[in-house]
Every structure is written in C-alpha cells, then in structure tokens.
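Bit of a strange request maybe. I'm writing a small parser for structure token strings and I need a real example to test against, not something I typed by hand. Could someone generate the tokens for this chain?
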Amino acid sequence: MKNKENDLGITPITLIVVDDHPLFRQGVADTLSLESDMLIVAQSADGDEALGLIRIKKPAVAVVDVNLPGMNGQQITHQVSREKLPTRIILMTGYDDIEQAIHAALAGAYGYCSKDIEPKNLAGLVREVAAGKFVFANKVFTRHELDIWVEENTEAAHRSYSEPGSPYRPLSDREMEVLDCVVRGMSNKEIANLLNISHQTVKNHVTAILRKFGVEDRTQAVVFALKRGWVTLKDRHI
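Reply from user aminoacidic:
Good idea to test on real output. This should exercise your parser:
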C-alpha cells in the first residue's frame, strides 16, 4: 500500500525509531517529525518488538540503536536483510569505531552513525538511505563503493591485530560453518538452531576460532578472515 501524500503533496519517508532510552528515542522521533518529508509510524524500546513492527509496518527506514534488550541492532539488521524486507536500517551507536561500522555494513545496514550526530545531518542521512544510498563514516556510497570502502578499511583495521602463531592451525569444517554464521551477524542462539548444536558448543567453537586467529572478539575474527579471503562480503546476503 502506498503512503498517502502530505499537505504539501509529498509522499513522506516512513520511519520507525528504536532505542531503549525513552528521552533519546523521543528526541530522535521529534526531530525527524519536524521534517516535512518524514513520518514516524512507530517507536520501540525492544529489539524483538522492533522487528515485529518492521515486519508489519514496513517503513522505508528504521533508525535503530546497536545495543537493545532482546535482539540487538546488528541482529535486527541481519534478519531484515535475510527476510528481504523493504526497510533500510540505519544503526546508531554511542561508541563509534571502524570495526563496528564494518560489522554494520556486513550485517546489511544502509547507514551507520554516532548518537552525537547533528539533527540536520541525521535528516540528511535518512534521505540518502531512503533514496537507496549507503552512508558510513559521514560519506555517501553506492553499493559498489561501499564494498570497496569495507574492503579497504578491513585491511586498515586489521593492522593493529596480532598475527596468529606459527605453525598455522586451519579451522575445522564445523568451525568454518560457525565463522560463516558469525560473518552473517548471527547470535550464538541462532547459530545453534541453524547447525542443530548446543549453545555451549557454539561458544566453544567461537572461542577456538578467536584463539586460532589470535584475536579478541568476533568483529576482529570477521576482519581477520575477510583479509585472507576465507570468507567474502557476499556472505552477508546468504
């Protein structure tokens, strides 16, 4: 169903705002509501509820906090991409770093920004994303340009990480399956359900992967594997 035009004859960009801090969430909603070409159709403080609203409302854009009760922002983004829902996700974070931006892009987000973004810049970001562009690190990209940016920054981000010990111990087939799921932004619970193994077994495999790669967390493991070509950017569309 098409959105109705507003009094100015403009079909508004429909939006959902998701954040578990009421004052911040309302501030974002109020700010974007002042824009003549934007319409807030729902708000949520919980990740699972937010995904349900996205499925029902199918807004053009969802502005989503990375850290949420229930499903986190990365998981929502991954699921929206997996289900091929029309909503484009903008992830917001209070802790902005390049690794998290890379992970957001891999999960399928169209935009990523810090919570200290200026209101006018957030409105501009929403418009770019609604038009089908990607916005990361305050830059606007096409799909192809974003892939190049991710690859270039994957190389740069990895330089600060230690190389694994020698001799190299390759991952087992099951560990590669788990790694593929991690690249796709899946939680341990989702991985366990997909691979039909226990939650503890997933945790054990993830720990083994981190140890073998000589890295400290899942994001570093993804960056490490991407650099060496063991996984590819297309994995996020699986």
